[in-house]
Amino acid sequence: MAYAKTAVNRQEALLIIIFAFLISFSSIMASTDALDSCKPTDSGPVVKTTPLVSFLETVQQTSLKTFGHKNFDPKLYVDMSLKYNLNTTLEAFNKLSIADNGSVSVSDLNDFLGQYLEGADEDLVYAEPVDFAAEPRDFLPNVENPEMRAWALEVHSLWKNLSRKVSDTVLEKPELHTLLPLPKPVIIPGSRFREVYYWDSYWVIRGLLASKMYVTAKGIVTNLISLIDEFGYVLNGARAYYTNRSQPPLLSSMIFNIYNQTGDDEFIKSSLPALLKEYEFWNSGIHKVSIKDAQGEIHNLSRYYAMWNTPRPESSSIDQETASRLSNVCEKTQLYRELASAAESGWDFSTRWMRNASDLTTLSTTYIVPVDLNSFILKMELDIAFLANVTGESSIAARFTEASEARKKAMNAILWNAEKGQWFDYWLTETNTSKDAYTWEASNQNQKSFASNFIPLWVNLFHSDATMMEKVIQSFQTSGLLRPAGIATSLTNTGQQWDFPNGWAPLQHLIVEGLVRYGSEEANSLAKDIALRWIRTNYVAYQETGAMHEKYDVEKCGEFGGGGEYKPQTGFGWSNGVVLAFLEEFGWPADVKVGCQ
């Protein structure tokens, strides 16, 4: 009887094994059919990640399965470093008892994390800025209101809170860390952003210059140039998982502004080779786009295009969840490219990059020629021409003066819309291309309102056309973007952080400074009005929360922003920088009240 029962059990076990095999085989075949039936659309380059990053992604996935989604930040895990070499750590990790759903017992995982991994904040250590003074000489001389001046000094003091340097352990054993070694101290944005970021650094530097912290500002540029020397371009941020993309190219503007304050010829002479290398990165290969205009002339412009087509390591679990709505491997691979490319733009994420405003899986960043990116590169061309003249490199100066005129012409031919008085992003379509160039069509301009439509104001080269400038200013004033507490990023409320009702310090500053540079009475008045709205909302939010915020709700004075794939952050590098830059430009009279109006 026992024998018969054992035989039956064996038969049942065998049936279960066969059944499981058939299910598995069917799943594999279905997956293969999906792969075979889809047509790959992604053929761009990929910069491989490191084994350490891949391992930390596995830890990230296991932690999500174990701890759950509540308060889970995937970036935390790829920012951790190892206490021992990767092989030893991996061997210990593989000994964990992993359940069928990918989870581990909470106590086992916590024990592993404590024994084998360092905390995410350990790679950078506090660094006292060598050029910080509690109240610098000639600091914001036109800020006369005592309340505003006291607050400005508090914001100035935040540079000390955000100052860091790479720890000795990173320098000694870089293979154990995702943080990249940098030669000089850094200013971090704050909160979960524990490393230096590329385009954030421009507004950090503008604030440092207002704070008379020239040594710190130059150190940031030195760090960014070191990334160009190693990788050929400035990375999105100083982490191993950011090597596949850059961010809006503002290095030349950082150098230009520092030179204007310091007159340091040697500084710009040593920086020029790196700028030339970065310029080549943005104007060749996948970033370069050729478009034939209505008259048959071919123009070259640039686009964002990350060298990556899998989930972003710092957001791996989020990207996989987003992609789970797609039906096949090819669509997911393309989406991962678009997600990383949107991150390269700095606008992660926005309806600006989406074919369907309610569906993040319709991101199409690589199919868009952006107004702001080409404005930044035009500014780079003008900066290089200026800096080359200063250093006596006349042939380089002539070449980049010519390049700037060509880009201005291209932007006006492809992006400018005279009827609307704005520059619009241009969408590329596969059906409208030849071997040599895309063919321009008016219907491919994205005529929705975004703050980026007005970024060319920031570039002096457009200011010579007074008729165009007056039309742009009028268009901005009637666009609906100017709200009670600043400039909205878009007019579409989707819950994405680079959409309505959020306003961001960089966009306020670029448009305000563009208006000031143009210099008409109307432009100056409008610039001052925007700056005062922005200063007030920052001031009131600071009084209520004790912090500077990454973004603000421009519908309500004193409200910080929300939305996006992570919780609102404080600190905050570029917000501090823009407030100080605005106060330096416009001051604050003694009789003007602070606070919301």
Please describe the structure with a list of short key phrases separated by commas or semicolons:
597 residues, mainly alpha, three-stranded antiparallel beta sheet, three-stranded mixed beta sheet, 19 helices, 49% helix, 7% strand, disordered N terminus, Glyco_hydro_37
Q: What does it look like?
A:
Helices cover 49% and strands 7% of the residues. It is mainly alpha-helical. Among the domains are: 51-118; 480-596, no CATH class. The strands form 7 sheets. The chain has a 3-stranded antiparallel sheet. The protein has a 3-stranded mixed sheet with strand order 7-6-12. A two-stranded antiparallel ribbon has the order 1-2. Strand 9 (416-417) and strand 10 (422-423) form a beta hairpin. It is globular, with a radius of gyration of 26 Å. The termini are far apart. Pfam families: Trehalase. It catalyses: alpha,alpha-trehalose + H2O = alpha-D-glucose + beta-D-glucose. Its EC number is 3.2.1.28.
Care to give the gist of this entry?
The protein is mostly helical and 597 residues long. It has helices at 2-37, 51-67, 74-78, 86-94, 106-116, 146-162, 168-172, 200-210, 214-231, 251-262, 265-282, 316-323, 329-345, 371-390, 394-414, 466-477, 505-518, 521-545, 573-586, and strands at residues 81-82, 117-118, 124-126, 163-166, 186-187, 288-292, 298-302, 368-369, 416-417, 422-423, 426-427, 438-439, 482-483, 486-487, 502-503, 552-553. Among the domains are: 51-118; 480-596, no CATH class.
